[in-house]
């Protein structure tokens, strides 16, 4: 009799813990599935979608194994929906062979000018970069980049450098014409038309304010909403930089739905984290640096690079811009 009571107590305890875990998972899943980014905590939770998706798969399987059918079924069904959204990022998409001008774009957050300029320029040279989009570009960093020889490889520039983390800039192998591509934003976001041989390309150095600041995500939501959608019949456009958003945030998905593709996702690198760099495990590494490419431009390659001195990894992608 005692053994039966003990088994019942243990079973109830196990069920209680599984239900608690399932509730936590379902609440987290709701932030992604419903696009809930209204507080910094919701925005942070959404960024962790790949992590709680994996947790949901394990939890659902465990509940079914323990014959907690209701908990296991509900959890597993929701986990399957999330897996369908997340898992394809780890596999290359079929891509047409590009016809036009091949272009390599690199985006790098320079951590208020603390990144090693020599390493940035070395990466530009090694990857034959045509356009470099920089965030957190300071006046001191501009001088460091000049001393490191950036002008020798990317002689054309549009810099909005400022002290602190507000600055931004574009450096290019080809002539640049500055363009205003966003409404006024919290941080500077340099935009320009790149005059490629036989083609034109609009590039924006993206840097919305982070959503997890004490003031909440209001400015981040506004900055994300101000990022330009791809215009049907308009100029070929690329958004490159530190979005402070993952592919699971509603603002970024809006841009993708307008006609951009995420370069990392195209080549099966969409789960490769870019922040924080250096192998840190807390906060959990996430992919918030992106190159969004006009879907008229087939993506050929994508790579994530460590940048000494910065807490972000740089992203480099090669794609083909159709001729004029």
Describe the structure.
- The chain is an alpha+beta fold.
- The chain folds into two domains: 87 residues, no CATH class; 221 residues, Endonuclease/exonuclease/phosphatase (Deoxyribonuclease I, Chain A).
- The chain is built from ten helices and twelve strands.
- The strands form two sheets. The protein has a six-stranded mixed β-sheet with strand order 3-4-2-1-12-11. The protein has a six-stranded mixed β-sheet with strand order 5-6-7-8-10-9.
- The protein is elongated.
- The protein starts with a helix and ends with a strand.
Alpha plus pi helix count: 10
Query: Cα distance, first to last residue?
Result: 84 Å
CATH 2nd-level architecture of the largest domain: 4-Layer Sandwich
In the sheet with the most strands, the strands line up as 3-4-2-1-12-11
Helix content, binned percent: 25-40%
Give the structural class.
alpha+beta
Principal-axis shape: elongated
What would you give as the CATH superfamily of the largest domain? Endonuclease/exonuclease/phosphatase
Query: For this entry, what is the oligomeric state of its chains?
Result: single chain
**Roughly what is the average pLDDT, rounded to an integer?**
95
Q: What about the largest sheet? A: 6 strands, mixed
Count of individual domains: 2
How large, in whole angstroms, is the Cα Rg? 22 Å
